[in-house]
Amino acid sequence: MFIDITPWIAVGLILITSTAILGNLDWRISLGALAVQYVAAFWLVTRHLPFVMGSAKLITGWMVVAALGMTCLGLSTAEEYKKGESALPRGRLFQLVLIFIVAMGTAGATPRIESAIPGLGYPVIAGSLLLIGLGAVHLGLTSDTLNVILGLLTILTGFEVLYAAIESSILVTGLLAATNLGMGITGSYLLIAGTMPAEMEDEL
Amino acid sequence: MNAPLIWILTPFLSGFLILFFLHRRFSPLIGGAISMALALTALIFPIDTALLLGSISIKISSSVQFFGRSFSLNTADGPLIAIIYGLAALWFFGTEASGSANRFVSLGLMIVALLTASIAVEPFLFAALLLVMAAMLVIPLLVPLYQKPGKGAIRFLIYQTIAMPFILFSGWMLAGVEASPGDLGSTIQAGTILGLGFAFLLGIFPLYNWIPMLMEEASPYVTGFLLWALPTFTAIFALGFLDRYTWLRTSPQLSYTIQFAGVIMVVSGGLFASQQKHIGRIMGYAAIVETGLFVLALGLGSLEVVNITFLLLIPRGLELAVWALALSIIKRKAYTLRFNEVQGLARSYPIAVGALILAHLSMTGFPLLAGFPPRLALWQELARQSLATAFWVFVGLLGLLIAALRTMAVFVMAKENKSWEWNESWVQAAMLGVGVIGLFILGMFPQVLQPFIINLPALFEHLGQ
Predict the structure, then answer these.
(1) What is the pLDDT of residue A5?
(2) What was the ipTM of the complex prediction?
(3) For chain A, N or C: smaller number of CB within 10 Å?
């Protein structure tokens, strides 16, 4: 019974962390939730990949969080970093409705995907669809740089959870890790951009 | 010696070293020279063939194993590599004249290396990962540290990243479709997911909105390089899909859908270009039209797919390089690149303006210029299949021509007493001159491309054979 429940705990964690990232304006909480999200993804990924390869994904994810965190910390010491305001509706109720829609979509699609691709497992599919769906919602609601990067990282994690079940190549795992890390570094760069004078660019 | 080490690892490491250790003054020269050397090596030394130099036998082996998968560049890849690195050299040599960012050459070399890896990786499906990594490397070029990231750069990053999961997943689904070709549901699902992946990657209508935005907010030279490099390799990647999966190649519905997407891109790009008042955005829409022509060529479904696609690829590199360089020179005088600011500049920057107009006319398919032969070949094939499609392509190109005429009219609207000046430097004039001569040579003697493209169909086992 315990074995059956544990992956669903990971799915629950994914729902909670994605909701936290979507609804929170403080970068510290968002990045903390992202770090926990990587743990949940690791949990699901290791159902199909060896522990070592799953660990590589987890460590890469945490490195991304660290890179983004250090950048935001650097920015917040200079001037308090605030996520940009979006013109789109950002009310709590609206976000809850969107999360509910994604959750319902996931609940409806999971059995169908499992019947189309047997052997993936309900928790893996559900976790993956939640991440992809909530990541897409996040991208749709914001134009703020940090939020965009968080949305893209969430989508990539969701895809990795699903893809790990069908492709176990070391090269793919390595390239996906490099892509995640690249996204973190690109995100850090984009966050820094605009904060340095033009003369600094010449020196660099 | 090993081909992937020479044409992937060497430029990547060179880019890395140039980035950290070379003074910016020398980077265009060194980067261009490395790129040219790689192009010449690809031309002179055939891959996987033993050559005797005196008593020394040299053979460049074709593949290398990496994490259990192989990166392989075969004999047929040689001319393609020569074209890619030759055009890249042109871009790098032009950096100094364009006044682009310090990092352009180093990151450009790394980007070209990653893109070359995308044609070498096996299974070819994993190229999607290398393409997205190359797209990430473009970001520091598009967004200087002193400038806030604009919407165009962010959208570019989003679209290129989202494309990768679609393509990887569709590749897995396509394997299933091959196993049971009668399953219509799976076929439609795989086709849709693949289509979405390429729509994001190539910027198919309406997902190309980032291109004109980038042309406004980023350096025209860098954006031009991006608009040359990424669609070129994406088109080769798409050809790989058509070659690998029989049902994609033979499905008339898919061919029709691809052609429809191409027509929409050509027509919308041409019409939007004709309405613009910003010469950077006009170049963006011209690049969209050109990508639309690629898409049309991919959907031809005839034996000429490979030939026409590669015939389009080579002039595109030259046209965009000349256009982007001319824009960069003009941007120093008229930063916004809007019509009201560039009015009458033909008398102050005659060479840059002339080169810009010629590159623009070449993209419209004007006779005697590089764009004419491939458009004629494509038109001929399209007219055989559907006169309506050929007509709509004409409408799109007409839109581009109108944009060219409007641009020309604005450039020559100088005050009557304004005297002629020459404000371009010698380097700028020489680079633009070489580019324009190239446009005329490719337009008047398209057979010079024959040695390069004659063996390219061999890259694909089934397409065009």
Answers:
(1) 81
(2) 0.90
(3) N
Distance in angstroms (rounded) separating the CA atoms of residues B172 and A167: 9
From the list B126, B145, B154, the residue facing A172 with the nearest CB is: B126
Q: Which residue in chain B has the smallest CA separation from A186?
A: B136
Q: Within 13 A of B98's CA, how many CA atoms are on the CB side?
A: 28
- Optimal mutation site among B154, B186, B213, B222, interface A, most CBs of chain A within 10 A: B154
Both tokens of residue A117?
């691709």
Residues above pLDDT 70, as percent of chain B:
99
| Interface contact B172-A167, CB threshold 8 A | yes
- The pLDDT, as a whole number, for residue A204 is 47
B396-437 pLDDT tens trace: 999 999 999 999 999 999 888 888 888 888 989 999 999 999
**pLDDT(A79) > 80:** no
Paired tokens of B38: 């790689």
- Write the CA distances from B6 to B12, B86, B325, integer angstroms: 10, 15, 29
B21 in A contact zone (CB under 8 Å): no
pLDDT in tens, B9-65: 999 999 999 888 877 778 888 999 999 999 999 988 888 888 777 777 888 888 888
- In the three-class reduction of DSSP (H, G, I as helix; E, B as strand; rest coil), residue B52 is classed as strand
* CA distance linking residue B310 with residue B208, whole number of Å: 22
Give the integer Cα–Cα distance in Å for B370 and B359.
9
Interface residue ranges in chain A relative to chain B, Cβ cutoff 8 Å:
116, 132, 139, 143, 145, 148, 152, 155-156, 159, 162-163, 166-167, 169-172, 174-176, 178-179, 182-183, 185-186, 189-190, 192-198, 200-202, 204
Angle at A163 between CA B201 and CA B192, to 5 degrees: 45
Q: Out of B136, B140, B151, name the one closest to residue A183 (CB).
A: B136
